């Protein structure tokens, strides 16, 4: 039987003292007494394996095939299956007979086995999560530490540039993005530069309320439609902006030398190919083109 990790193994009469008793002086060993004909055993075993894996080596799981290892069965007086026994410091210290829910098994193990600490989260992933939640300052603080250790990290530089842009530090953001020399993250860099462009453009445009008033008077005002989309992009109102740009493209694809089409592609870069809005609007743009 294939074992999923080195912490899980079959124990036999020949090696039981070494694999279980001796090992238990170093790490607790959970022994699963099972048999091929025992349906509850087969239901319990995958759950025990999952529990053992979750302890990442702090708990060992030994499996004893009771049909093949009658001497071990007799030695420990196993009378029903499944039976599970926890060994620690060479002695059985706890256990249960019959199938049990995972919560009960973990509760039994809790006093005897130390759960390993969770792996430290990658600081860049943390910063990305904070940025996506709108916690720009927190993301920026993490990125400063990260870039202090490695100022050539292209992905961190790009995200730091986006943080600066969101705070209105447009010149500083441009300088950071210009410092990215790696070709590895071209799409992310193009997206960050697009964001910076939208923020710069929005600063010189009429206010949203004024643009909406113009459109209320003249729904065919293409310039107002485009400028409103840019204002929405600067505020991360991506769905509204994409909808407006696509409608403008369909109505007047030649507007300002194809600007709505170019801007749609910039937004796709900004959001990334995996974003559901990109998937939807890329399909709709294709249908409009062809």
Automatic annotation (TrEMBL):
Q: Which GO terms describe its molecular function?
A: protein-disulfide reductase activity
The record, for Gene3D superfamilies, names: Glutaredoxin, Tetratricopeptide repeat domain
**Which Pfam family, just one, is annotated for this protein?**
Thioredoxin
SUPFAM superfamilies in alphabetical order: Thioredoxin-like, TPR-like
Q: What keywords tag this UniProt record?
A: Disulfide bond, Electron transport, Redox-active center, Transport
Identify the GO cellular component terms for this protein: cytoplasm
Question: GO biological process: any one?
Answer: response to stress
Q: Which CDD domains match?
A: ybbN
Q: Which residues form the Thioredoxin domain?
A: 1-114
Family from the record: Belongs to the thioredoxin family.
Protein name as annotated:
Thioredoxin
Task: Give the species this sequence originates from.
Answer: Pseudomonas batumici
């Amino acid at each position: 039987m294939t074992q999923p990790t080195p912490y899980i193994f079959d124990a036999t009469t020949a090696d039981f003292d070494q694999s279980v008793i001796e090992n238990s002086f170093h790490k607790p060993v959970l022994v699963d007494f099972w048999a091929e004909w025992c349906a509850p055993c087969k239901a319990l075993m995958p759950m025990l394996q999952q529990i053992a894996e979750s302890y990442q080596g702090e708990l060992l799981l030994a499996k004893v095939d009771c049909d093949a290892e009658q001497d071990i069965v007799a030695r420990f007086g196993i009378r029903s299956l499944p039976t599970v026994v926890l060994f620690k410091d060479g002695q059985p210290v706890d256990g249960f007979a019959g199938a049990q829910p995972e919560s009960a098994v973990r509760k039994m193990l809790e006093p005897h086995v130390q759960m390993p600490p969770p792996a430290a989260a990658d600081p860049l992933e943390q910063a990305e999560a904070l940025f996506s939640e709108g916690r720009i300052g927190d993301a920026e603080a993490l990125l400063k530490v990260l870039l202090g250790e490695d100022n050539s990290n292209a992905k961190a530089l790009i995200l730091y540039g986006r943080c600066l842009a969101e705070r209105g530090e447009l010149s500083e953001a441009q300088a950071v993005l210009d410092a990215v020399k790696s070709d590895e993250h071209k799409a992310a860099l193009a997206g960050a530069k697009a964001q910076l462009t939208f923020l710069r453009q929005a600063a010189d445009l009429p206010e949203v309320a004024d643009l909406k008033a113009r459109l209320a008077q003249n729904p065919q005002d293409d310039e107002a439609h485009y400028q409103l989309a840019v204002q929405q992009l600067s505020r991360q109102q991506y769905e509204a902006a994409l909808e407006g740009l696509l409608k403008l493209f369909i109505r007047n694809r030649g507007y300002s030398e194809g600007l709505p089409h170019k801007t749609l592609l910039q937004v796709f870069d900004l959001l990334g190919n995996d974003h559901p809005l990109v998937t939807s609007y890329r399909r709709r743009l294709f249908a409009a083109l062809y």
